[in-house]
Each structure stands twice: as C-alpha cells, then as structure tokens.
Specification:
722 residues, alpha/beta, Phosphorylase Kinase, domain 1, Rossmann fold, Dimethylsulfoxide Reductase, domain 2, 4 domains, seven-stranded mixed beta sheet, six-stranded mixed beta sheet, 29% helix, 18% strand, binds ligand MGD, binds iron/sulfur cluster, binds molybdenum atom
C-alpha cells in the first residue's frame, strides 16, 4: 500500500502538539511536527519524538497479563481477562457493597478523551463513590477548595495574550507545558513567552530555583520554599495599603475586603521577606508591578500547591486577582469561550461560595475533616474522593473499605504520598487491575494488567485542553495506525465491565449502547453534545485549527443569580495564624533542608525513561543542590547520599546545581521502584532513581477538606554514606 500522510496530535503529555504521521502498511514511518498549525507553529518536544519507538518498544506489553500463584505473569486474552475480572468485581460488590470498588484514574486516563466519562458512568451504575484521580494529589486547592470557598467569576481571568503582567508562583511551563490560563500558555510555550515579552508583558516569577521561566522573568523572587501564602499575603497588604486595588470592582463584586486587609496586615514585607529569604523591597516591587499593570493574572503551579498551607495560598492568589479586578467584564469579548464546552451566553458576574460542597459529600472514613472534593469543570461540578488518603481507605477495616482497585494509566506505588503505606495498601487488596503499557512498579502488584492502545492507535479530541487555549482551538484525530494484537482502550474496559455485570451506563446526554460496543466518535459526540462547535465539524477538519465561533460578549449580571466573591470564608483566620507562626518557627536543626519537587524534560512523571532518546538524558532523578551546600557537607558532585526525613530515608544522587537556592534540594517524583526489600530498588538507584514519596507521611500535615499531603517542601537532612 502506498504511504499516506495524516494529521494527528501527540498525547504523551497534555500539550497536544499537532503532528503529521506518515503510514505505510499500518506502520509509522515518520512523525514530524505539523508546521502549518497556526497555534503551535511546528512545536514539539523530545518526548513526542519518541512515539514511534514507544509503539514497538520491548518493554511495551503486547498482551494482557494475569498473575499466577507464584507471582509470575502469563499472557491472557483481554476478553478472557475481562470475563474473570467482571466475575470477581461482582463478587466483591455483592459481599462488601459499592464503595469497596475503587478506580484510580492517573495521568494517562486524561489523555484518552472518553476514559473519564465512561469510568464515571460505571461508578454511577454500581453506586460507588470511590472514584479517584491524580488531580487530588496534584492541586486540589486550585481546582476544588479555592473556588468552592471564595466563589468564582463566570467570565474567567485575564489570559496571557491580552495581559501586560503575569505573576507565576512555582510553575515552570517551559518544562512542564502546564499552566492555567493567565500563565505562559502550555502550547509552544517558548514562542508564547517570546511573543509576550515583545508585547511588553512583565513576568514576576516566585520560585526557589532559577528555573527556565525565572531566568526569563523581569522580577524573580528566589524564595525559601513553603512561605508562598505569606508572600502573597504581604503582596496583598502592600496593594491594599497603597490603595492600588480596583475599588470599583471590589465594591460591586467582593465581600470581606476589610477582613482581608486586617488579616494580611501583620504579614509585612520585612517579616515575610526575612523568613522567605528575600529582600522586603522585592515583595513591594512585585506588588506594585502586578497591581499597577492593567491586566494580567497570578497563577500557581505544583511546587507551592504541594507545600504548606495550599488552601490559604490558593485563597490568597484568587483574592489577589479579584482585588485587582483581573477578570473579563461586561461588554468584553471572551478570547476563548470554548469549542467543545457547552454553548450559551455568559454574564459578567460572580457565583458565590458553595460551602456545602466542603461538607455535604461522602465523608472520608479516615478523617472527619476530609470529604469528597468538588472539582469545577466547564461541564459543571464533578465529585471525586481524595487520593491523598486512598491508601488509608484501603487499610482501614470496616464498612466501605476498598477491596478492589482499577488503576487506569496511573502508577500509585510511585505517585501516592507515603510509599510504604501505599505498598501495604495495594498488597492487601482482594483485586487489583491495571491498564498500563508496561510492567510499571504498580502494575507488578496487580492481579491483571490490560494492555492498552497507545495514542496514535486511537481516535481522540482535545477535550481536556478546550478552555486552556486563548483562542477557540480544537483538533480531532482519527486512528493513525491500528494497534496490533489484542489491545483495548481505557473506556472499553469500563464498558466491558458494565456489559458483563448487566449494568446500564449513562453519560450526561444519554445512555450508552450496552448491546453493541459504541464507536468512539459516537461516545465523544454524546459526551460533548450541545458544544459550541458540533463534534462532527471538528471531526471533518483535517488538523487542529482555531474555529470561527460567534463572539461571546459578557452580558450584564443577573441580579437574581449574581453572587459575591467571599474574601473571608470561615476557617481562613486559623490558616492565616498557622502561616504566620511558620514565619517565626526556628530552623529544624535535625532536618534543616527542604526537599522540593520539579519536572524533568525527558520524562512525564514515570513515563519515558525506557525510551532511547529520553534515556540518554538520564535514567534517574538527581538530588540537585547548590554547590555551597555540597561543600559544606563535604559531599562530592555525583556522590550517592542518603536523604532522610522524620518518616523515611532514600538514597539520592547528590548533584551540583547553581540554580538552586542554598538550603533546598530539588528532586523529581515518580522515580525509583517498589519499597519491598526483595525488589532491591535502592541498589539500582543509578538505573531507576529513588522515590521521594517514601519520605512523606501523608497524614502528618494533611490539609483540611482534601487531605492533600505535603508532597513538596519536605523537611529533610542529608547523610553521607561513606
Ligand atoms: N512527592 C511527589 N509526589 C507526586 C508529585 C510530586 O510533585 N511530588 N506529583 C503528583 C502529580 S502532579 C501527579 S499528576 C501524580 C502522577 O500520578 P500517576 O498518574 O499515578 O503517575 P504516572 O507516573 O503519570 O503514571 C502513568 C502510568 O501510565 C502508564 N502509561 C503510559 N502511557 C500510557 C498509555 O498510553 N495508556 C495507559 N493506559 N497507560 C499508560 C505509565 O506506564 C505509568 O505507569 O503524582 C503525584 N505525586
Ligand atoms: N516534562 C514533563 N512535563 C510534565 C510532567 C513531567 O513529569 N515532565 N508532569 C506533568 C504534571 S503531572 C503536572 S501536574 C504538571 C506540573 O507543572 P508545574 O507546576 O509547572 O511543575 P514543575 O515544572 O515541577 O514546576 C513547579 C515549580 O515549583 C517550584 N517550587 C517548588 N516548591 C516551591 C515552593 O515552595 N514555592 C514556590 N514558589 N515554588 C516552588 C519548583 O522549583 C518548580 O520550578 O507538569 C506536567 N508536565
Ligand atoms: S510537549 Fe512534547 S510530549 Fe507534550 S504533546 Fe508536545 S510533543 Fe508531545
Ligand atoms: Mo499532575
């Protein structure tokens, strides 16, 4: 057959870079950036260039696997595996009830545009609230707790393309390709930043590392980790004291401004600067730079969102944007009203807080304070249980204990806080099923591993990123190459369980055909029904494009439904007090260093180090430290040391890096292997790295409502091994 070139997009990460694939006899012979794309301009990264290799890689599971009595795996047909799994799930459901069946939908579940909706439909059909995702160990304060407590603005915040300032707090988009709107766009981020700087955007970066973003910013606050809430409180205080806020917006749409002014008053630039290790003048300069600009948003990333006081930090960042009025107003055109999200007019008004979401959902069995979180999405509020305490839910005996786990494109043993506990929890399950392309550390603990189709082997649409773009952009990709052998999609698993268990699965816009397996397009059509652009039009468009959607001009507020943003919700006083106390706390002499997280260019969490180009860039997660720190401890660059916390110890490869603030260790997560001594993970540190989640006690500083663990800014010390 003659070679054919088609347009598609990469789903190695969520930047969804458009590509052109040339296929001959169902084999990929080339995969190149789609240089004609108007948004990405031909951008791709080293990971995306490995998609061809990934398809035939020797570590890829070509068939589903079943664990044998001796712990080894043998190949099994996927239909046979699913027959057996359905029977086991039914027995567990009958014996222990719906809550005992949990699914954990990790990062690769998000890359399949139908996976979450069908998984949720399965949970609804069996009545199980035990729906978990990686979002609740990522930034739950941002997507759930913050907007729930303060309310949100229906017109959204200023986006990068029409901003003249951006405050970027612990978010390194140039490596992570991640930002919420307002920060540097995740799509071709280098170009976006260059274009912004030419336009005159002022970038304020707050990060303990001179990151790729920090080195290109106008003002870098190289803070000690863990004081971001206090830093933002101080910035707010300067703005309010100097009267730089948007008084008209505050009068009309905000409640609790006086209280906020009071609460932030004692967070003076001097007090906060001393603890955060930066000059007071920098805090004042950041406040003035941000507030005197006309448009632009403050955004956070994972670093501070995983550190201390994330609920307060998120509250203050939202408050900062609100008091400066950084929201689209009546009569303004929304840069991206959404392509796949529901059509309809939008009004320039706030929706007030929803405190009932914090308390009325399904309660965690392990703590009164922790509850189902409500994640805001363009499709409405979505409930999920907090992953930070899922291992405890598995270990705590009694009514509702989790007995079965379906793990979809996630790697709990490396990703969940408290690795030892996670290991015990997974080992105690009656049934664990993993849908994973390789024998990951977690998959090895499963009873069944189902071999999935990879991204170029399936259809998808850019549902996840629909409102992250600052233009109404979308792309539908058809299957580029048919998967060889017996492989399934993530959603097909849940459909197959539903069918075998005699369930009726339903999406928001109607039931799923349970007799004949639906086509993916039909599923996606049902998921997106009512969208601004019909899915068919996107399907019929070759490649990604900005769609010509009618302008959405924000309408006048409706007095009936209009709410106010609440700057002083119940509970924040105590959070302010805790953040203030932290400013005064003496250095912990036993654990004087702070271990923080980072992303690495050559991997996506635990995916990638097996691929040749990525492997060449490194097969482990070095412990980056300032050379001064290394010499003070008499540690050589490249030496294997032990990093230990009150909770655990791991080996680490000490690596000198000038860009790290002294006192800080910067290490990536999701590396290493099983903590089971039999796995001898520590001995393989240079080949597989080590797992920072072994240093974390997930309950020691669990955040209210979400149970979010302290996954960054961890108190540690370093010990020489020889
Ligand atoms: N200490 C600490 N812990 C952290 C973090 C941190 O910064 N510090 N970060 C947290 C964050 S933000 C997140 S999102 C989580 C990540 O948590 P997880 O999502 O649980 O972890 P990943 O390593 O992304 O797991 C992805 C899995 O999917 C598999 N996979 C790869 N491609 C495919 C595919 O196409 N289909 C399928 N079905 N599977 C595939 C991979 O082999 C891998 O096992 O970790 C969290 N944990
Ligand atoms: N290449 C690659 N891309 C990825 C991933 C990957 O593993 N590799 N992971 C994906 C995932 S799951 C996610 S959630 C996103 C995350 O995307 P980002 O949030 O952009 O993640 P990072 O690049 O780790 O950036 C976090 C930054 O926070 C800083 N930081 C750490 N602690 C603190 C602190 O206390 N205060 C402040 N102010 N800063 C702090 C770190 O130095 C780091 O620069 O990236 C995604 N993209
Ligand atoms: S940034 Fe890299 S990994 Fe992410 S979608 Fe683009 S090419 Fe793929
Ligand atoms: Mo994440």
């Amino acid at each position: 057959m003659a070679a054919k070139t088609v347009k598609t997009y990469c789903r190695f990460c969520h930047a969804y870079c458009p590509m052109e694939a040339t296929v001959e006899d169902n084999r990929l012979i080339s995969l190149v950036p789609d240089t004609s794309n108007e948004i990405y301009g031909g951008y791709t990264c080293i990971k995306g260039r490995q998609l061809i290799e990934q398809i035939d890689h020797p570590t890829r599971l070509q068939q589903s696997q079943k664990k044998q009595a001796d712990g080894s795996f043998t190949a099994i047909g996927s239909e046979q595996a699913m027959d057996e799994i359905a029977e086991k799930l039914q027995a567990i459901l009958d014996k222990y009830g719906p809550r005992s069946i949990a699914s954990y939908n990790g990062t690769y579940s998000y890359q399949n545009s139908a996976a979450h909706d069908v998984a949720r439909a399965f949970h609804s059909a069996i009545g199980s609230p035990s729906y978990y995702t990686s979002v609740t160990i990522d930034q739950p304060a941002k997507v759930a707790i913050g907007p729930t407590r303060m309310g949100w603005w229906n017109g959204g915040s200023h986006m990068w393309n029409d901003s003249d300032v951006a405050m970027i707090i612990g978010n390194n988009t140039l490596v992570s390709h991640y930002s919420i709107p307002g920060g540097i766009p995740s799509f071709s981020p280098h170009n976006a930043l260059r274009e912004g700087k030419q336009r005159g955007v002022k970038v304020i970066c707050i990060d303990p590392r001179v990151t790729e973003v920090a080195s290109r910013s106008d003002l870098h606050l190289q803070v000690n980790p863990g004081h971001d809430a206090a830093v933002v409180a101080a910035i707010i205080s300067v703005i309010l004291t100097e009267g730089l806020h948007d008084k008209a917006f505050c009068d009309e749409h905000i409640e609790g401004l006086d209280a906020l002014a009071q609460q932030t008053l004692r967070f003076t630039p001097e007090t906060v600067g001393a603890a955060a290790g930066i000059p007071a003048e920098q805090i004042i300069e950041a406040a003035r730079m941000f507030a005197t600009a006309k448009r632009g948003t403050a955004v956070t990333g994972t670093g501070p969102e995983m550190g201390p006081h994330p609920n307060l930090l998120q509250h203050l960042v939202q408050a900062l944007n609100a008091i400066c009025g950084r929201h689209y107003r009546e009569g303004e055109r929304l840069p991206n009203p959404g392509v796949l999200t529901p059509a309809g007019p939008r009004a320039a008004q706030a929706t007030g807080p929803q405190p009932q979401w914090l308390t009325d959902g399904v309660k965690s069995r392990v703590s009164e304070d922790i509850c189902e979180t409500v994640v805001l999405s363009p499709y409405g509020p979505l409930k999920e249980m907090p992953t930070a305490v899922i291992a405890d839910e598995m270990l705590l005996e009694g009514e509702g204990q989790i007995k079965a786990l379906i793990c979809v494109g996630g790697n709990p043993l490396l990703a969940w806080p408290d690795q030892e506990k996670t290991h015990r929890a997974l080992a105690g399950l009656e049934l664990m099923v993993s849908i994973d392309l390789k024998m990951s550390a977690s998959a090895q603990m499963a009873d069944y591993i189902l071999a999935p189709k990879l991204c170029l082997e399936r259809e998808d649409v850019t549902l996840l990123t629909d409102i992250w773009h600052d233009k109404p952009y979308s792309q539908y990709t058809k299957t580029v190459v048919e998967a060889e052998g017996d492989k399934i999609e993530e959603w097909e698993f849940f459909w197959a369980m539903g069918k075998r268990m005699g369930l009726e699965l339903s999406l928001t816009h109607g039931p799923i055909d349970m007799q004949n397996k639906p086509e993916k397009f039909d599923l996606l059509e049902k998921i997106t029904r009512g969208s601004r652009v019909p899915l068919k039009d996107i399907y019929n468009t070759e490649g990604g494009k900005v769609f010509d959607v009618p302008d959405v001009i924000l309408g006048a507020p409706d007095p009936e439904t209009q709410g106010r943003l609440q700057l002083n919700p119940p509970g924040v006083d105590a959070e302010f007090a805790a953040a203030y106390t932290d400013l005064q706390s003496a250095t912990d002499t036993d654990y004087p260093l702070r271990l923080i997280s980072r992303r690495m260019k050559n991997t996506y969490n635990s995916t990638g180090p097996e691929l040749s180009l990525l492997k060449r860039k490194g097969t482990n997660n070095p412990a980056f430290m300032h050379p001064q720190e290394l010499s003070a401890l008499a540690i050589a660059d490249g030496e294997i040391v032990e990093v230990h916390s009150r909770h655990g110890a791991i080996p680490a490869i000490a690596t000198a890096a000038e860009d790290i603030k002294p006192g800080v260790i910067s290490m990536s997560h999701c590396w290493g292997g099983s903590p089971d001594p039999a796995a001898q993970s520590d001995e393989k540190i240079r080949e597989i790295g080590s797992n920072t989640n072994r240093l974390i006690d997930n309950r020691a500083s669990a955040e209210r409502y979400s149970g979010m663990a302290r996954q960054s800014s961890i108190h540690v010390a370093v010990r020489k091994l020889s």
